[in-house]
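My current task is to audit a protein record that another person submitted. Alongside the sequence sits a line of tokens, each denoting a local backbone shape. Please read both lines and tell me whether the tokens look consistent with the sequence. Do not assume that whoever made the record got everything right. Thanks in advance; the entry in question is below.
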Amino acid sequence: MENVIIKRFHKNEIRFAFVNHGRLYTLLMVKSPKWSLKTFDKDLIDNPIHYKNLLNEFFSSWEILKFLSEQNIKISDIQVENENQLKEFM
């Protein structure tokens, strides 16, 4: 995972952009009332195995873990949209 950019908007929206294997990905995390992580990337939505692998790398990234820690956001508090679809591949 390269070139991680994190932007926080207000108190309830965080956007992540990063390059993985030469491709740009974006994720959106919104708090309402729990944190929900989602993507609008059709390739990820259509390929749950790739999406699961990308999320594993995402949550293993030092920059992401550091940011979440600084914001007092626990990984266990984040709900991944379409999580039931991804559980089949976990």
In short: The chain has a mean pLDDT of 88. Strands lie at 2-9, 13-20, 23-31, 35-38, 78-80.
